[in-house]
Amino acid sequence: MSHSRPRIDTEGRRARLGRRHLLAPACRAARAEDVADAVVGLHATDAATVHLAACARLAVPDPEEVERALYDDRSLVRLLCMRRTLFAVGGALAPVVASSTAGAVAAKERREMTRWVTGGAPGWDERRLAEAEAKTLAVLAARGAATAADLAAEVPELRDTIVVSPGKPYEATVAVSSRILRVLAAEGKIRRGRPRGGWTSSSFRWVPGTAFADLPAPPPAEARAGLARHWLASYGPSTVEDLKWWTGWTLTDTRRALAATDAVEVELEGGAAGVALPDDLEGVAAPGPWAALLPGLDPTAMGWKVRDWYLDPDHVPHLFDRSGNIGPTVWWNGRIVGGWAQRADGEIVWRLLSDEGGREAAALVETEAARLAEWVGAVRITPRFRTPLERELSA
Q1: Which residues pair with residue 163 across a beta bridge?
Q2: Which of 20, 63, 107, 240 has a Cα at 20 to 30 A from 29?
Q3: 191 and 298 belong to one structural domain
Q4: Cα dist from 174 to 126, 165, 344, 380, 393, whole Å
Q5: Per-residue confidence at 4, pLDDT binned at 50, 70, 90?
Q6: What is the pLDDT of residue 3?
Q7: Which helix (H) or strand (E) element contains residue 43?
């Protein structure tokens, strides 16, 4: 790459991360919406991750602040979107994400579900599927909130089952309701309500939603440009491959979206080609020493495809499961240096995989572990995706 292009070094990228992802103590936010906006969206596949990721970045960590945004004000919206992953995004960004990403995911989910139901359940065709969905939405509108079991009690079609992989060792019987409700949620027609248990619970009631078709959303190309701009402001400077991976778009759509943001080419440390917003080429001061304990699937840890600038490749086997899901991580000044876990008695334990930062780093990590233990209190956390180091530490 030509040296005439602006060069962004790794320290500059880590300084941006500490500030823009609200991880340095001086940069923490007051509201859950501000956190989601700072990282574009909070990973929501694991119910606990939303709260843990948000509270790590809140000046006053409080699960009730996250509950307010999710369930009272509904200013955080869960969407099946980037990489076919569930995210909680701010209400203002939700139409952009729906048009740029979630709409296409929902369309694919519907095609697959329709083939699955009509091809595997006796007596099912597209007409019966449409009738079952209409009944489900009517019951939910009348009740206001309902579990899948509540809905199945009033909509007999939802009780039908399909045998998956018959005759195989992994043969399973799956309820039709699970796929229908997933698609209705993917389309925004229903959404998850408050969990039946505590904030770590994945058991919840469904409530009526707003279908994407009813949202005042920008056209897909315009929405992709808007999402790319927002992502670059949070995660840039980065590579084109990072954005393509993060969104799940094609390379053509990724390049067109970046072109619409007026992104400029930069050289990243090591000579890799990158892109940045035109107003993000100057140096950024480091926010001062900081440490953070982030949960499994945290949006920062999963924010880039190329991670060598903040993660030692030798540490990957300890911190990721076999499917590529990252577990709980310990950060020091913009770099992953270890992992953490919670034991059955509630103790927060951690281990550094690097001696970077020495005693200063260890002291700040200890402070963050105490902060986490204080607000988590009696709640017990088991990540949905277990990793080798997390299993070892929690034993």
Answers
A1: 173
A2: 240
A3: no
A4: 19, 11, 33, 30, 35
A5: confident
A6: 52
A7: strand 42-43
